[in-house]
């Protein structure tokens, strides 16, 4: 073989390798079993709501449990596992509606097909989030993954979901439930609370903001009249009607605009929520967010459960259970996530 021909073949091989490595990995998922309502579940009929927005009454029903999640290719494996866990532990799984939010740049058709394939019976809608709405307000944080515009979609749920949806449970994609989500959805928000979430008052709240924030005589008074505590925004019960009435999206955007002028925090989408809501939320039992299982934002080291009962396990932090399992370096608690993993592996045998 001539040297010239060998060089041509090597060049073609190099191009082929680059094309393969640049191609997105297509993940295929198994179909989940269908889950049915228990006999005492409320019946949802067209008379449940006065709004005629959706084709099916359940999408506007007050008797349904409305769940909102983001959806993207990077976290689709976690999202599918989370949905399965919600349905499997629900006493009324047919009364659950999922409201998924995907960015305008995502392949929404492919994401919708993935969900439909694994859950052909599921009532869900995919809403398109125009990320340009928030991209101009995002400041860099300590971890690039936190800067993804889709992380900020939770601030825009009141605008994205139809007005007939008055209450929603927001869930991150890196968690599983081991309890009935209806219990969480039924959280009493009282007379005026906009959202509910587990509070962690032992956390060092001041660490979530910079010295520039605390040294500013005006900004430092933000929490003066509140008993402000840290809460994790990956699990929240939100009254969307009160959110809309109070224009809370605009309030969050105001703090993000402030961050553009003065660096007052380091962590992505969390601090604006704390600035607006900390000390004003309805506290929820810690069992509903055993968070931090993904370790810190730098190394993603293994962590143990917090003391007490568990209804929801949350792999917030850098380490995700599917990535650690694939790498052959799982943490002990990742074994609790794996039974909900519907990824179809190439060599899997049908059981």
From TrEMBL:
Pathway: Glycan metabolism; pectin biosynthesis. Keywords: Glycosyltransferase, Signal, Signal-anchor, Transferase, Transmembrane. This is Hexosyltransferase. Coiled coil: none annotated. Residues 1-22 form the signal peptide. It is an enzyme of class 2 (transferase). PANTHER family: GALACTURONOSYLTRANSFERASE-LIKE 1-RELATED, GLYCOSYLTRANSFERASE 8 DOMAIN-CONTAINING PROTEIN.
């Amino acid at each position: 073989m001539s040297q010239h021909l060998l060089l041509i073949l090597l060049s073609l091989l190099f191009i082929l390798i680059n094309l393969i490595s640049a191609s997105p990995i297509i993940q295929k998922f198994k179909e989940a079993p269908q889950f049915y309502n228990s006999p005492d579940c409320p019946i949802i009929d067209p008379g449940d709501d006065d709004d005629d927005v959706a084709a099916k009454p359940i999408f506007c029903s007050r008797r349904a449990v409305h769940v909102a999640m983001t959806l993207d290719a990077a976290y689709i494996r976690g999202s599918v596992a989370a949905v399965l866990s919600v349905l499997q532990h629900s006493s009324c799984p047919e009364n659950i509606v999922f409201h998924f939010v995907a960015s305008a740049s995502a392949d929404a058709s492919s994401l919708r097909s993935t969900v439909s394939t694994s859950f052909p019976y599921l009532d869900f809608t995919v809403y398109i989030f125009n990320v340009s709405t928030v991209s101009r307000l995002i400041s860099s944080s300590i971890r690039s993954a936190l800067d993804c515009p889709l992380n900020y979609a939770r601030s825009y749920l009141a605008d994205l979901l139809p007005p007939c949806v008055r209450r929603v449970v927001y869930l991150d994609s890196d968690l599983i439930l081991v309890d009935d989500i209806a219990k969480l959805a039924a959280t009493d928000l009282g007379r005026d609370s906009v959202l509910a979430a587990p509070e962690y008052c032992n956390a060092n709240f001041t660490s979530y903001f910079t010295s520039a924030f605390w040294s500013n005589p005006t900004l430092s008074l933000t929490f003066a009249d509140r008993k402000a505590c840290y809460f994790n925004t990956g699990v929240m019960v939100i009254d969307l009607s009160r959110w809309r009435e109070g224009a809370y999206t605009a309030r969050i955007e105001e703090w993000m605009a402030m961050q553009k002028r003065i660096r007052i925090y380091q962590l992505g989408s969390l601090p604006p929520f704390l600035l607006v809501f900390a000390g004003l939320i309805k506290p929820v039992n810690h069992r509903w967010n055993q968070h931090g299982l993904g370790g810190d934002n730098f190394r993603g080291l293994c962590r143990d459960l917090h003391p007490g009962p568990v209804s929801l396990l949350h792999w917030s932090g850098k380490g995700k259970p599917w990535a650690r399992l694939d790498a052959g370096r799982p943490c002990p608690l990742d074994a609790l996530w794996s039974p909900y993993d519907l990824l179809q592996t190439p060599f899997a045998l049908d059981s």
